[in-house]
TrEMBL record:
GO molecular function: transferase activity
Top-level lineage group: Bacteria
Keywords, ordered alphabetically: Transferase
Pfam families to which the protein is assigned, alphabetical: Hexapep
SUPFAM superfamilies the record matches: Trimeric LpxA-like enzymes
Protein name according to UniProt: Transferase
Amino acid sequence: MLSDFEDDYILDLLFNQLKLFKLTDAEKNIIIDSFSETKSRTEYCFVNTNNKYYSKNDVAFFNPFHSGQWCIFLYYLSNTIFISSVDNRTVCDKIYYLNRMLNSCDLFYEVNLPDIFFLDHPLGTVIGRGIFKNYFSFNQGCTVGNNKGIFPVFGENVKMLSNTKVLGNSTIGDNVIISANSYIKDTDIPSGSIVFGTSPNLIIKKIDASNYKNYFSK
């Protein structure tokens, strides 16, 4: 993965940001041991993201001072460490809280976001424990949450535009755009649709399949 910064610089930057949480030497070693896998996950995500800032000539490009890229990287780091051992919760919590502080975005490390997802200016977004497929994307002020303990299920190529909410027993099909300020609760949305409004009075319109490439990532 291309970057203007060496790995040692990126790790030093991360450790300095985490000083507030008083990392132990053991926690630093856990992060170092997980760094390579986190970079690989980040690279795969970025090279499959249809955004000019995330790749150069089809090679993933990583800028730790691009807040969206750093947000994704911090999520993958905390999630990678958690997957490796649930005993590492404390260092995962520190990385998770750092991500919330820097980016005002709640991406908990136990939430299984897909191998390819995208965010754009995600301030004020909370992504709960839904089920997500690749090419999930979201903007500012979005919420994925539960209703009576049930979380939504998302298909491939779902875009949540700004200030949208998807809650409860909702299944969102493939190739769906959830338009700005929409609120979906306990409602299924068919594939190939754009949805407007508020449950139970949603407006759902079909998207011409020939235009998918204009709306969605690779």
